[in-house]
């Protein structure tokens, strides 16, 4: 099936940029959209992603370029002025410049349960069409993942990708790999495609246009120490207490905790804050809760907890900032906890 690209830039490209965090499946959606262009829409297409360590919670960008087959895609550079942007986690706003390159011609698709005017203010969106879709809610209802819902919404936002072609590419890709999840995934794509309404914003002077700028790191291949060094162990570069999970978050119920430490040994990111204390009248290491800076929402801790002292809850129902246990507040005897490190990164006399 061939399609006509609606508008292209000066190079003849139609461009999509996905802004996400690791674990939400944006990279997969980029690959699917790339494949869709070349194999199903009779376009030339390319896709590539930009990310750091492949860790849940780290910022991820994925880029998709399309052009007619009488042209070639010979560039592999980041997309600075996309026709469509998909924002997989609204809390990315303010942490990285997701609105770079957005103007009147851009369609911005955001995973949010908020109203467009509030989202525009949060994003500081200059102008363009804003599509707000509660991908998490739809994904829960349809037993799929938010990336499938956003695939439908982003496809619709382009104006030329049909629902049939999206369904076909999903059947032929993730459907073959995960057949048991196919119906849920297709339902998610359909809801994403059908449930969207755009709100147009003109350049009313409220928020300035943002130029796209590459973030330069202090260390690169030329000057980084051999083997690499993570200066903030256990943390991610733009991590805070909100933007690194997929909708669910572990919640700690201290009264049920027997301080067995299973959560701590299971957690890959050393989120739990154990300090010297007392349990049942005896000296013991006791669990004080979670440092959510480091939590990526994998929920392994919930699975292993023997007493249901950890439960998986919808993140949007909780003020995580108030539940958050900062390890720097837990200075106990000779243990001095670092502000930004995971709980096992401590300075002890024996460690010096
Ligand atoms: S696994 Fe559960 S009971 Fe054990 S320390 Fe962790 S929260 Fe407490
Ligand atoms: S969900 Fe639990 S196991 Fe996973 S990173 Fe967060 S605290 Fe650790």
From TrEMBL:
<dbReference type="Pfam" id="PF01558">
    <property type="entry name" value="POR"/>
</dbReference>
<dbReference type="InterPro" id="IPR019752">
    <property type="entry name" value="Pyrv/ketoisovalerate_OxRed_cat"/>
</dbReference>
<dbReference type="GO" id="GO:0051536">
    <property type="term" value="F:iron-sulfur cluster binding"/>
</dbReference>
<protein>
    <recommendedName>
        <fullName>4Fe-4S ferredoxin-type domain-containing protein</fullName>
    </recommendedName>
</protein>
<dbReference type="GO" id="GO:0046872">
    <property type="term" value="F:metal ion binding"/>
</dbReference>
<keyword id="KW-0479">Metal-binding</keyword>
<dbReference type="InterPro" id="IPR017900">
    <property type="entry name" value="4Fe4S_Fe_S_CS"/>
</dbReference>
<dbReference type="InterPro" id="IPR017896">
    <property type="entry name" value="4Fe4S_Fe-S-bd"/>
</dbReference>
<keyword id="KW-0408">Iron</keyword>
<feature type="domain" description="4Fe-4S ferredoxin-type">
    <location>
        <begin position="248"/>
        <end position="277"/>
    </location>
</feature>
<dbReference type="InterPro" id="IPR011894">
    <property type="entry name" value="PorC_KorC"/>
</dbReference>
<dbReference type="InterPro" id="IPR002869">
    <property type="entry name" value="Pyrv_flavodox_OxRed_cen"/>
</dbReference>
<dbReference type="InterPro" id="IPR051626">
    <property type="entry name" value="Oxidoreductase_gamma_subunit"/>
</dbReference>
<feature type="domain" description="4Fe-4S ferredoxin-type">
    <location>
        <begin position="286"/>
        <end position="315"/>
    </location>
</feature>
<keyword id="KW-0560">Oxidoreductase</keyword>
<dbReference type="Pfam" id="PF14697">
    <property type="entry name" value="Fer4_21"/>
</dbReference>
<keyword id="KW-0411">Iron-sulfur</keyword>
<dbReference type="GO" id="GO:0016625">
    <property type="term" value="F:oxidoreductase activity, acting on the aldehyde or oxo group of donors, iron-sulfur protein as acceptor"/>
</dbReference>
């Amino acid at each position: 099936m061939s399609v006509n690209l609606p508008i292209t830039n000066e190079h003849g490209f139609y461009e999509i940029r996905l802004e996400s965090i690791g674990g939400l499946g944006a990279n997969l959606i980029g690959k699917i959209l790339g494949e869709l262009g070349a194999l199903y829409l009779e376009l030339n297409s390319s896709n590539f992603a930009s990310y750091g360590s492949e860790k849940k919670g780290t910022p991820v960008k994925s880029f998709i370029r399309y052009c007619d087959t009488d042209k070639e895609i010979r560039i592999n550079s980041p997309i600075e002025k996309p026709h469509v942007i998909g924002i997989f986690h609204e809390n990315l706003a303010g942490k990285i410049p997701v609105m770079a390159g957005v103007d009147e011609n851009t369609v911005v698709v955001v995973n949010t349960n908020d109203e467009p005017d509030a989202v525009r203010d949060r994003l500081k969106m200059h102008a363009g069409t804003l599509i707000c879709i509660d991908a998490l809610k739809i994904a829960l209802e349809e037993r799929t993942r938010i990336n499938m819902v956003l695939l439908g919404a982003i496809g619709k936002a382009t104006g030329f990708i049909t629902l049939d072609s999206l369904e076909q590419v999903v059947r032929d890709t993730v459907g073959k790999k995960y057949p048991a999840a196919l119906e849920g995934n297709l339902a998610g794509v359909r809801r994403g495609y059908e449930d969207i309404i755009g709100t147009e914003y003109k350049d009313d002077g409220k928020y300035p246009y943002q130029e796209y700028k590459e973030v330069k790191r202090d260390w690169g291949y030329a000057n980084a120490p051999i083997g690499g060094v993570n200066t903030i162990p256990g943390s991610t570069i733009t991590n805070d207490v909100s933007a690194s999970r997929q909708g669910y978050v572990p919640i700690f119920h201290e009264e049920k905790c027997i301080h067995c430490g299973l959560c701590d040994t299971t957690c890959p990111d050393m989120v739990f804050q154990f300090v010297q204390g007392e349990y049942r009248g005896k000296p013991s290491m006791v669990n004080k809760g979670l440092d959510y800076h480091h939590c990526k929402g994998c929920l392994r801790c919930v699975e292993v907890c023997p007493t249901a002292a950890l439960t998986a809850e919808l993140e949007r129902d909780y003020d995580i900032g108030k539940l958050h246990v900062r390890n720097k507040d837990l200075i106990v005897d000779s243990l001095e906890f670092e502000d930004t490190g995971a709980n096992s990164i401590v300075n002890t006399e024996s460690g010096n």
